[in-house]
Structure formats: C-alpha cells, structure tokens
Design brief:
Number of helices: 3
Strand content: 15-25%
Shape: flat
Radius of gyration: 14 Å
Structural class: alpha/beta
CATH class: Alpha Beta
Number of domains: 1
CATH superfamily: Glucose-6-phosphate isomerase like protein, domain 1
CATH topology: Rossmann fold
Oligomer: single chain
Number of strands: 3
Helix content: 40-55%
Largest sheet: 3 strands, parallel
Length: 84
Amino acid sequence: VLLAISTSGNSANIVQAIQAAHDRDMTVVALTGRDGGNMASLLGQDDCEIRVPATSTARIQEVHLLVIHCLCDLIDEQLFGGAA
C-alpha cells in the first residue's frame, strides 16, 4: 500500500510514485486537497482518495494530519488489539 499525500494533488514526485505503485500492482491511499489535482485522475477502483475540498493549504494540511493520526490508531488497533 502506498500512502500518497499532496495538498494540491499535483506534486510531480507523488504522481510518479502513484504510477510506480500501480506498475507494481499496489493499492494507493491518496490524501489530496482542493479538487484532487492530477492524483485524482490516476486512481483506480481499488484505490482510496480522501480529499479535503478546501482552498486553504493550512486547513488541508490540518485535516491530513488528523486523517494520518486516525490511520495510525486503526493500524495500531489491528496490530496490537485494544488498549489495556
């Protein structure tokens, strides 16, 4: 799984990483902002886009940070179970 993060969705290196991931049959989870940019058009039905439809870079990054924390909590729960 590739976690691809871009505020604009147009970061060239992230777009290339998505293409490389698809070449390797990897699933992509994309965190984007605004209209999803170029990244949105590259995603397939097995991929997941979490888009923040805002224009403020700071607001987009704040939501991305929250999503990353939630993903970490979910992964931790799956790997290690509930809190003691």
